[in-house]
Amino acid sequence: MKRKNFARRPGCAVEAALDLIDGKWKGVILYHLQAGTQRFGELRRRMPGITQRMLTKQLRALEDDGLVIRKVYAEVPPRVEYTLSELGESLRPVIDILKAWGESHQERLSCAPAPEVIVKKPKRAA
């Protein structure tokens, strides 16, 4: 994936960093890979809202950017594992802070679970 040129612009370091982890899924993938090496199917199960095509696309972009290492084993069927690179590991504090911020503001975020509705049953006549 071709990267933009952020040189000599205010906020260029922030723009460059966000460009690497932009979108809905890259940060989530990096979060799950913090737990260690995982196969494609494991990642897919951890993110039920992502399509196979999108997960493939995002993993390729993360690999192209040097954040994820893809290892293919010469087996039948082929086994492919993904792990964070050294550069990807350096994002661990950023991902952890994003997670903590999300947890502390969960009530205000659109992904927050819906509040439980308590339904009162009418009293029976004696």
Detailed description of the structure:
With 126 residues, the chain is an alpha+beta fold. Helices cover 43% and strands 11% of the residues. The protein contains 6 helices and 3 strands. The protein has helices at 12-20, 26-33, 40-46, 52-64, 86-89, 92-104; strands at residues 38-39, 68-73, 79-84. Strands 1-3-2 form a 3-stranded antiparallel beta sheet. Strand 2 (68-73) and strand 3 (79-84) form a beta hairpin. The protein is extended, with a radius of gyration of 20 Å. The protein starts with 11 loop residues before the first helix and ends in a 22-residue tail after the last helix. The model has no long low-confidence stretch (mean pLDDT 85).
Largest sheet: 3 strands, antiparallel
- Class by helix and strand content? alpha+beta
N- to C-terminal distance: 72 Å
| Contiguous helical run count | 6
Q: How are the strands ordered across the major sheet? A: 1-3-2
Nearest-integer average pLDDT: 85
Shape: extended
Could you tell me the strand content as a percent range?
5-15%
Percent of residues in helices comes to: 40-55%
Radius of gyration: 20 Å
Low-confidence stretches: none
- How many β-strand stretches? 3
Helix/strand order, N-terminal first: HHEHHEEHH
